[in-house]
Design a protein that fits this description.
Lipocalin; 4-stranded antiparallel sheet; 29 strands; Thrombin, subunit H; mainly beta; globular
Length: 339
Amino acid sequence: MQLQAICIDKESGSVLHTSELFDIKRPPLLHSMNSFASPTSVIDGDFVYCNFGTMGTACLNRSDGKVVWRNQGQKLDHETGPGSSPIIWQGLLIFHCDGTDHQFVVALDKTTGKEIWRRNRSGKMDPTGMLKKAYSTPTVLTNTKGKDELLSAGANWLYSYDPATGKELWKASYGQLGFSNVPRPIVGDGMIYLCTGYMRSAMLAFNYEGKDNLDDSDIVWRYDTQVPTMPSPILVNDLLFMVSDRGIATCLNAKTGEKKWQKRLSGEFSSSPILADGHLYFGNRAGDVMVVKPAAEFELVATNKLDSAVMATPAASGENLIVRTANSLYCIQQSDRSN
């Protein structure tokens, strides 16, 4: 199996160049709903960073696709394939490695690919390997003292690390079994919002304002009805929106957890909602993209049909909405209504 990065012209859709990153002789096991290239690549200036979990990480030049470096030193058993996406913080590329055998967070030098730090998970987990895995993506929080913290969701625990050194700053228990986490922690207005993952996902809201260390006593509310295990929630002003895997969309008051509305959208969901041009876009596994007003009262603006499943979260780029389905890549732009 060959792992590639493909550069596509945004205006025309034509392929500009293809970079061959890794040849994998014996691909790992993969869940039927996953892919070998599920982690989202990161663009930073003139460079693109592609992570394939245990199969390797590569940096390439954005303009010509030439490979700058490769690193295959972060080995783990995903059991169902890779899922955690990397982020860039200052000069580091940081990502999660939460497998059934090893669970750690790692930072690579973004210029050379050299491993700078690695931090093993310290929280107590179930001894069963499959209950130790996770697939979330880290988030950087600037705390009330102006210091950056790396928020990192693993099995059973939310961790905070110093992104420069990997030093663990604090950890907070979910208070329940939570593993195979996919949704990313989100931050806003002094709060951290986290979905706990399988077996039954709950939405936890932590208050971090004015605090150096958090634990489970800082959970200010918990919501456990139709909380997603795959799509990440999204915060718009003082409202928190989410859609469960089964297609139940919910709007909560972000400060109190009070339910504003809950409606069934058609189909099942893996991709996360995105806010673009004043609307929320929800794409399901049947290829339907529903447009919803980000308001305290439910309003479905439109439903659009694409050719196949929307598994990846769409991306907004200028006036364009980029949507990847199972079979195609779309660039969608609002038509000129004067014509």
